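Hi Y.,

Following your request, here is the sequence exactly as I used it, all 234 residues.
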Amino acid sequence: MLRTSSRAPNGRARPRAAPPVMPWGVRRSLLSAANDVRLKAREVLFHAGDAGDGCYFLRDGVVKAAVVAKDGQERLLAVLGPGSLIGELSLFDDQPRSATISALKPCSLWHMSKGSFFRLADANPQVYREALKILTRRLRQTNDSMVAQGTVTVAGRVARAFASLAQGLGEGRGNGMILLPNKITQNDIAGMAGVARENASRAINDLLRDGILAREGSFYVIARPDELADMAEI
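Below is the corresponding structure, written out as C-alpha cells. Let me know if you'd prefer a different format.
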C-alpha cells in the first residue's frame, strides 16, 4: 500500500525490499501434495515451541507472527499476507517453531509435510531456489533491522513498523489514506520496532500530532503515506 521506493541521500530511488513470497508457478507445482487448511480470525496455526511438521503457503488472508517476552507480553514480529511461505525454517533445521502464527483475518492456507516438500523439491530444483530466495530476503530484513537499531532513530523505526503493517493489513481510502483495520497496540509497535514501549508511545504521539497518523475509532490510519515512507527510509 505504501509507495515502493523513497529517495536515498544521493537522490536516487531506494528500492523497497520485496515481500517474502513464492511465485505462483512454483506454488502451483506443489499443490498436488498439499492439504487445505482454514483458519478463523484469531485462530492459532501453531505455537512457538511446537514441533515443525512442514510448511504453509498463505493463499488468502493475513496472519501475524508473535512471541511472548519475558514480561509475559506478546511481541509482534511480523504481519504476513497472501503468497507468504510460513514455517519454512523448520524444514531445514529440524528445530521447534520460533514464533506463534495466528490469523488476523479468516485465512486459507496449503500445508505441505516435510517429506512431501523435499520429494517435490528434489524433482523440481526451482523449489529450492525460490525457498533460498525467501530465506535470503528474510535474512536481509533481519540484518536491516539490526542495523536500524544502531543507525535509525526511534521515530524512523516506529515508522518502519507502521509501514510494514500497511503492507500486510492496509486498506486504501479514496483520499490516499491507509486504514489498518486491526487493533494495533503500542506494545505491538514497540515489539516490531525494537524499542521500549514508552519510546514507541512518544513516537506515535508525535506522528499523530504531525498528522502523519490519525485514529479512526480504535484503528490507526496512515494519513500521509509518503511522509511515513520518508521517515521509514524505505
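The CA atoms of residues 71 and 187 lie 12 Å apart.

Thanks again,
Q.
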